[in-house]
Amino acid sequence: MLETERHRIILSAVQERPVVTVADLCALTGVSEATVRRDIAQLHLAKKLRRVRGGAEAISPPQFVGINARPFAVNQTINIAEKRAIAQAAVDLCEDGDAIIINGGTTTFQMVHPLTTKRLQVFTNSFPIAEHLLKQSKNTVLLPAGAIYREQNIILSPFNDDGSGHFYARRMFMGCRGLGPLGLMEGDPLLVQAEQKLIGQADELIVLADSSKFRQRSSLLLCPLNRIHTVITDDGIEDRAAKMLEAAEIRLIVAETAGSNRRTRAEKE
Domain HTH deoR-type: where (predicted)? Predict the structure, then answer.
C-alpha cells in the first residue's frame, strides 16, 4: 500500500473514535507497527493528527458521534480483490425478476458492477449501492426511511416502521463484522436492530465474508449460525472455519481470487 493511501486511511480512522491504536492501524493498512508509527509521526508533524501513547487521535474530533463501524472509505481499500470475487459469486445466484435485499457494506457494494446486467427488485439500506444501481442499471431500487450516516454511507432508522416490513425477498445478501461459532457479529446496537429487521424479510440469508472475518470478533451477536443459509468467502478460508460451517449445515461457496491458483468450488449444496 502506498504511503499516501496509508495516510488517508489513518486520517479517516482517527475521525471515527477518540483514540486509534497502533494495532488498529496495522490491521487497517496491513503494514508493520514500525511503518504505522512513522506514518503517525509524519502526520503529527504536519499537524493533521495528534500522536498519543500507543496510537493517535484527531486534532478536532467530530461533534457528532456516529455508529461503531469503520468508515466506508476505509473499508473499501481492504481485501478488495477478495471482495470483488465474493460479490461476483453472490450475483451469480440471482436471476432476472428476483426480489433481493442487499445490506450496506463494502463487500456487498461490489455487487453493483455485475448487477448492471440484471433486472431485479433490490431493497437496500446502502446509499452508494442505491445510487449506483439507479444510474448504471435497470434494476428497481427501494430504500428504507431513516437518516444517512455519512461515514458508513448507510441509511438507519431508530423507529420500527422504516418501510422494510413491506418488502419480501427470496434472498438477503449481507456482510458482517465477524463470523464465529456463535454466529454473525456486529459492532453497534443500531446496526444490529436494522439488520435483524431485514433478515426477517428474506427466506435465505447469504453472508458475504472475506476469509479475514472468521478471525474477527465483536461484542454483539446479530444472529446464530442456524439462520444462515449460505456463506460466500474467498480461497483464503482456513480448514477450521470451513469445518465450522459444514457442522452447522451451511452451504459454503469459495470464490477464486484473481491471481490465485486454487479453483472455485461450492460445497455443501
Answer: 3-58
